[in-house]
Design a protein that fits this description.
29% of the residues are buried. This protein is an alpha+beta fold. It folds into two domains: 103 residues, no CATH class; 212 residues, Structural Genomics Hypothetical 15.5 Kd Protein In mrcA-pckA Intergenic Region, Chain A, CATH 3.10.290.
Length: 383
């Protein structure tokens, strides 16, 4: 193990009293050096400031952290301070201080929310020429409470993307070894066989894990019988299946810790743009509206879902992936033909989540963050 690797390695310290885990860099143990005393740190800071002044440089901002129990101070990153592994907000100089402070801290100690960006079919929705988008990408960035279930996240995504909640869905962890058969005839034959006879253990496995809806969802979906036909295409004898109603976002629940993509953020300080596209959310197994997940960072805990950002008008339900761009083209046409006029009329009058104002005059780019956030705020996911 290299010196730099050993220096950056972290250890976990368990508190027997509270059951909390604190994280601390193990630089002193890995390199054999003792951590700097408070006086040594002060001298180093003074010397650094003096050198910066002599060279007309702006001295770096050094954050001083204080132990929440005894107020002992240390520079951020010091091996003498350990951060609370759950909330990441407070630090302690020892496990004894953490245990002593637990009664005062436990009511405010909450896991921070996940900030997740969801991109809808990024390979097919947004038509682009090089780096220039001809059609807008459709995405939403949402703050998600870690105590929510994946079913709660599904409901939040239905609101954020303005879906009509008429189809089945699942969250699935992709098998990195799965590769689509390039032979279209052989691939279609396999799909047909799986639809009729069910999947075989010898078939390639597309998903390691599926978090599915259950019978409680069926009463609210008008197309669930049609979608159930497609479900066999996604099932596999070697794919684990669990209930989205019972599985929470925070890893370690229901035995899915090794497969939930948010796990990587639990053992580190707040990170910037941590990407993990192993998990996808698929709505409507027929049209295959696939939303990729990118965990961006953590944010202070809150009790509700909140929309932070996004782009693109919500996509029409049942238009199919290869029908969204032609629908936009119909509204852009100077003289739409008969088929295009019928498509526009269907979207404005019959589509389950259609827009009476249509998509003309650049409305394919229009979405209202405030409306989405207001609808999320009105929805009580805890009920």
């Amino acid at each position: 193990m290299g010196r730099d690797e050993a220096t950056s390695k972290k250890v976990k310290v368990h508190s027997s009293k509270s059951g909390q885990v604190m994280e601390s860099p193990s630089a002193s143990n890995a390199t054999g050096r003792h951590p700097m005393t408070r006086s040594t740190q002060f001298i180093c800071i003074c010397l650094l400031s003096f050198i910066c002044n002599q060279l007309s440089l702006t001295p770096p901002q050094i954050l001083i952290m204080s132990c929440a129990a005894c107020s002992t101070e240390a520079a951020e990153g010091s091996t003498t301070q350990m951060r609370c592994a759950r909330c990441k907000d407070v630090t302690y100089c020892s496990k004894e201080c953490q245990a002593a402070h637990w009664d005062a801290h436990k009511n405010s100690c909450k896991r921070p929310n996940y900030i997740i960006k969801f991109d809808l079919c990024p390979e097919s929705i947004a038509d682009r020429t090089g780096a220039v988008f001809n059609d807008p990408p459709v995405s939403r960035t949402i703050s998600c409470p870690p105590t929510a279930t994946f079913h709660d996240l599904h409901k939040a995504l239905q609101i954020a993307f303005d879906w009509a909640s008429t189809h089945t869905h699942d969250f699935a962890v992709l098998d990195p070894k799965w590769v689509r058969d390039d032979d279209d005839e052989r691939f279609v034959a396999m799909i047909m066989r799986k639809t009729i006879n069910g999947p075989s253990a010898s078939d390639p496995r597309e998903f390691l894990l599926r978090l599915k809806d259950d019978d409680r969802d069926d009463a609210n979906m008008t197309m669930f019988q049609v979608d159930r036909v497609h479900d066999s295409k996604r099932a596999h004898p070697r794919t684990k299946e669990r209930s989205a109603w019972k599985t929470k976002l925070y890893p370690g629940r229901c035995g899915v810790q090794e497969q939930v993509p948010f796990r990587s953020l639990e053992s580190r300080q707040p990170a910037d743009h941590v990407t993990d596209e192993r998990m996808v959310y698929t709505y409507d197994f027929g049209d295959q509206w696939v939303h990729t997940l990118t965990v961006l960072r953590r944010t202070p805990a809150s009790e509700r879902f909140e929309c932070f950002d996004g782009s693109g008008h919500g996509v029409a339900e049942d238009v199919k992936q290869d029908g969204w761009q032609p629908l936009i083209a119909a509204y852009r046409a100077a003289r739409p033909d008969k088929e295009q006029r019928e498509s526009m009329q269907w979207y404005e009058r019959q589509c389950r989540n259609g827009d009476k104002s249509g998509l003309g005059h650049g409305r394919e780019y229009v979405w209202d963050k405030d409306v989405v956030d207001q609808r999320l705020a009105m929805w009580d996911w805890n009920s």
